[in-house]
Fold this protein.
Amino acid sequence: LPSSGERLTRLEKGSQREPLLPLDPASEIILSWEREGFPQTDWTAFSFKGSCDIDALKAALQEALRRRPVFRSHLVVSKRLGLQTYRWRIASEPCPLEVTDLRGIGNRPVDMEQWTQQTLAPVVERYGNNLATEYPARFLLMLLPDDHGCFAVVWHHASTDGGGLYDFLRGLFSEYHRL
């Protein structure tokens, strides 16, 4: 999906403080598929070894979200003259990094892929269905024993495709390493 960071000029009538970002046609199709019962929320996770500077990661995430406002938005559905339109309303508060410290669990999981799938399944279920109140992307950091960790993103396909997500993550990690 094309970046919508530059398209902050469209404003909803009567509200000069809340910019609205239009959805592209592919995003609208994805939302229609979801209404037909095909879930459109997915997750991506990265395991890492080594220490993580949580404050630097939070700062890098906020900078990356500034450049990709759709990830810190909520879906707005409007009806005018019988037509339904979808747009993203940028939230006043940015999407937070959720940090879970699991370093006290003893040993880190042997099968990280299976553990990650089991851990993220309820998160996908919880965040996947209400884009009017939930962010279309959630960022989670899980700190594990033995100086390991897992950084995960739960995201809705209406906000980006896989390639766009990886571009965002490349920018996020570049900013993290710069800090």
